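TOKENISE THE FOLD
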Amino acid sequence: MADRDHRVLEHPEHSRDAQRPSTEHDRHSGSGRRFLGLGAVLLLFGALAFGVWRHYTRHVEVTVIAEQHHDFVPSVRVAAVRASAGTMSVTLPATTNAFQAADIFARASGYITERDVDIGSHVKAGDLLAAITAPELDHQIAQAEASLAQAKASRRQTKANRELARVTWGRDSVLVRQGWATQQQGDTDRLNYAAQQQAKQVNDAAIRSQEAQLLVLRQQKAYQQVVAPFDGIVTRRNIDIGSLVQADATSGTFMFTLTQSDVMRIRLYVPQDAALGVKPGVDAVVRVPEIPDHAFPGKVARIADALDPATRTLMTEIDVPNNDGELSPGPTARSSSRFHAGRPH
């Protein structure tokens, strides 16, 4: 009995010993969860604090930049004001051109029978360059002259018929009034006289037309003599004796090129900042790279009076005397131009 009681008394203690480890484990588990939750809360508050700090720093930066822009005073470089020079010198590239240049085309069709000039020939205005022959043109002139003579003979005949009709009507008009001639005969004579008067006007118009046609043909005959339009030098020749030329400047080939280079046109384009004082009469000095030791004096002769809107430059031409022929015209000849442009006050 005592042993049973002892076993009964020992049983609760054994039960408590068996439950003690489980209670301690639960206690440690609860403490871990509390520490984990506390860590999560601290991390959340840290992230929130960092976000607030970033927002605040950006707000401060924006405020500072806005204040700087509001109070910004730009720095400007300044210089003492000085009077500009009365003149300015500008050196620019330029192109040399002949004062006059022309391609000589044929105004009459035919064959070249005479050529009096060649490349390099010096000619005067009116000098014969070449002669063209066209036999059919001579026949046309003869035909036109015959037609004109026929029209003049017809006019003389009409004049005689008109005079006869006038006399007849003057005589028959008296007889008609007196009753010795019929009214029909009087009307016939009167209208015949009026018709002869109109025939005279027709003949006069025909004569004028024939005379005009004859003038055209004779002018074409004169065009068979090709002459120089101005004093100059033959720089190109495209024909020879026996060559066929056509009176067509569109599809035809020019016969000669004639240039006048005793005065040269020096063309240059002055930029906008230097174009203000450029005007005719301003002195200029032209230098050509091929002749470095020689300066050619000249004067501004022509300006465009308006800037090119595409390049903002002023087209300017300088006339340079070239009596000795040292300067050669041509688009490939380059020159440098120096001019002194007076600025307005």
